[in-house]
Amino acid sequence: MSHWKKFESNVLKSVKRDTLGKALADMSTQLRSVIGLDYSTTRISNTWGKETVTAAFTVNGKVIALGANLSPNADGTEALQVSGDFYGTGLNENGFVDKLAQSYKKVDIIEQVEEQGWTIDEINFDAKGEVVIDAYRTA
Amino acid sequence: MKTQRVRITIDTKGNPTLACLEGFEGENCLSQTKELEMVLGGTEVDGGKTPEYYDGGNNPISINIQ
To answer: Is B39 touching A (CB cutoff 8 A)?
Structure first.
């Protein structure tokens, strides 16, 4: 069933493009499909809708009818809104934005925690699907 | 020299929680993880006292980060 929709997440209201790219790479390893953003493609469409976006999502290199709208924030980050139609993309409409938010936070936290002098010991998923990061430092 | 260990849990919607696991004494958990809380973009909702602060309790203290 086709639905042209918009999706947001509190976590994705403040993103950096380089971290977003790393988050998509992290997410790709979990989904076993290569998910990316093509900033050179700003027009997405299918039989049921069309829209101009900041960048089109790609799955295994193919542009799909799903895009990212990035709006600038005052602090230099951008707010991400996912827009389009999941129908026929092979992606899960119900979990995609949450999974992206979790991967984004994971990548962002690991980078910043290491910058603060902590060493990442282990990264795992628990039974609830939460990412568990153990870190240590010698003080 | 003492090794300090923390655990960061990110729920399925991307919200992180910080817990001090070991190597902190008394209120040092809170004071010594301030920089991590800032990194996580957090608002402290727990006093952050370590198990050592309370009568040798064994449960880690969690700090929800939103």
So the answer is: yes
